[in-house]
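Section handout 9: paired folding examples.
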Amino acid sequence: MSQTRTTLITGGNSGIGEALAKKLIDEGQRVVSVGLEKPDWTHDLLTAYRADLTSLEETRAIAEEICRDHAVDCLVHNAGIILPNLLADARPEDILTLAQLHLGAPMLLTQAAMEGMRSRRFGRIVFVSSRAAMGAATRSAYSATKAGVHGMARTWALELASSGITVNVVAPGPILTDNFWGVVPKDSEQQERMARNVPVGRLGTREDVAHAISFFLDERSDFVTGQVLYVCGGTSLAGLSP
């Protein structure tokens, strides 16, 4: 992005969101982070808020506060949780929780930011989804809501295209983050086995995903909207064994 923009990142305090925040700040961009925790670092270009995005009321309130105080040009909805369970143990209420986090929260944030984006004739909305949207064992609630992200993003892409706003999705495969290690023990044989099963021969890094997101945020990417980019080392083609 050549012009200085403000990017709102959900979950900007850790993992992919933190990597993206630092990348944008290194490029001279302003970043607003919102999540359960504030980043453990500070910068003149960083503003941070705390909110539980699984709460409809908290999300609505923080969306209004952020968009009152900041001209949000770009929104990256990165916050997410997995809640893994095989079908026999899956809980329907998990679907409701993840639907609010993965779908309801970005809807409220986008609604709050949309007027400003339209008035400036510029906006970038990027969802961080998952290769699991294509299906993955133990991911009933997660894969269902992430697949829903793809449909919602395409719908918004059509609705917002005439306003200069693009909407795209980055769908990572196995990425070395706390979310990943919450399911797969860090540096375990299972992690090594998964790495060997990725077609490119390694697991992804948060910087891999941040790089892909930054493409969609770029002002020069205005002819790309409604797309899903799998950043997955080829696992969207070949699958991934646990």
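Moving on to protein 2 of 2.
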Amino acid sequence: MSNDEIFAAAYREHYWAVSRYVARRLDGRTSEVEEVVAEVFTVAWRRRADLPGAPLPWLYGVARNCLANAVRGYGRRRRLVDRLGNDETAHGRQIAASPDAETPGSWVHEALARLSEADQEVLRLTAWEELGIDEVAVALGCGTRAASMRLHRARRRLRAEIDRMGPLRPSATSADATPSKEPGHG
């Protein structure tokens, strides 16, 4: 197969996976998803001779870099809008959430958001993108042992954040909160 055919096959097979990967990381900024995905496949086209046999983890690595560029650009635009005084509060568009507006499982996302970007990424690659550790290593551009260690540490830090948030979680019931009687004190 020629490099062009390999690229075409990778594009057909992985376009939607890359789109979902990008969309999940842009936190509702859907207008930028297509732009970032187009940049990912532009880079892949330029480097089509470098496409590995299993290109999805490699494409995720390219997407990480394109997302970093997009996030930097978004930050620059946001700062410019703020300097111009054209922010949402100046136009009275504040939205107050109702107490029942919390989505199920939002506490998990809150705990995840408290982690470093590196920890979030390794956890997302395994949970959202369902990559194995070898594929995570390719996406992160590191060795398998390093990826495994990063995942282990990220999971440990996420567990600590979840435990720290424990009483705030809606799943904590009053039965969970009552102290148990010690044996022999009964």
